[in-house]
Amino acid sequence: MTTTWTAAFRSAVLSPGENFKLKEPRGFAGQTLRQILHLDGGGEGLRVLLSNRFGDRPLVVAAARVALRKSGGEILAGSDAPLTFGGAAEVTIAPGGEVTTDPVPLAVDAGTDLAVSLYLPEETGPATFSHTPLETGYVAEGDAVSASSLPAAEEIDSRFFVTGVDVLAPEGTAVAVAFGDSWFEGAGTSHGANRRFPNLLNARLERGWVVNQGIGGNRLLTDEVGRHALARFDRDVLSVPGATHVLLHFGLNDIGLGAASGERVPAADELAAGFTELARRARDAGLTVLGGTLGPYLGTIYPGVDTPEGQLVRREVNDWIRTSGVFDAVVDFAHAVADPGEPDAIRPDLDSGDHLHPNDAGAQAMADAVDLTHLHLS
């Protein structure tokens, strides 16, 4: 059987500075960073992707290891292996740069939790990061990459420097990229439980898998939290090895965050033009495109986000998504989680409590709304 490097985990990253408002920048020095990565797919070996994409200085990684996670920040005895870089134990990643580790002959299955430990001896400066991984990370003093457990470690709720894991999977394995906002990244679902929409969709698949490139707060047309979808499409979709499909959910932040900031709410035809361009670029690259309707958010607790104008635009865009024929298939996320008595609102039992994000049951309803015959992974 021929195998090839295929994306089995992805984590879309952000700049700690420009266009980011949700968390204060974080840096590290003389510390070990252990992070848990829940694999979407499995294979005969793996490699890890590290990024200093938004760093303001060289990032020195003096030691790195990968292991199977036992529980919390503890690794499974005998499972850990060094991560090397062109045969060297240490690597320096230039500002704006990324590196891929040498292959590790560790067989892993879908659903495996990896623990990746990085020793960062020098000041990193503000770190390239993912702000809502919904998984606890661990920061220990000194070089603790080989420690089986980190009992005195600080617990953190962001992910830093790690952007992905590739595995050696059978050639032709299908991979869908969930490319979107917080509805894909998983806001509103249970921390550490892997109940995000892509996780639950993966549980329905008999073969192939979905990797998550969602960014909470991300927009389709303009930068806000991270580069907008049109600007990051090549990096976060087309560069994913093995990608065959892309699922889209964008627009809520263009409408709601724009309104809350006093900006002009984009017209439905502007959002439609953005989606049309994404679909064109995906098809040009040979990908199957699934467009998702914009989820409901009536009565959200976030000030200024819910406006009559915005609700009208959302309805118009959803009508267009359902009927335009621009996509190879449509996933009606809005219908899946809407309150039948008030379709602009999330059904109460599917609401995380902020009236904007689905809870675990809502994410399951989203996953169940995907017609697997359109996804062609199962």
From TrEMBL:
Pfam families in alphabetical order: Lipase_GDSL_2
Keywords from the named record: Hydrolase
Segments forming domain SGNH hydrolase-type esterase: 178-365
Superkingdom of the organism of origin: Bacteria
InterPro entries reported in the protein's UniProt record: GDSL_Rv0518-like, SGNH_hydro, SGNH_hydro_sf
GO-annotated molecular function: hydrolase activity
Record protein name field: SGNH/GDSL hydrolase family protein
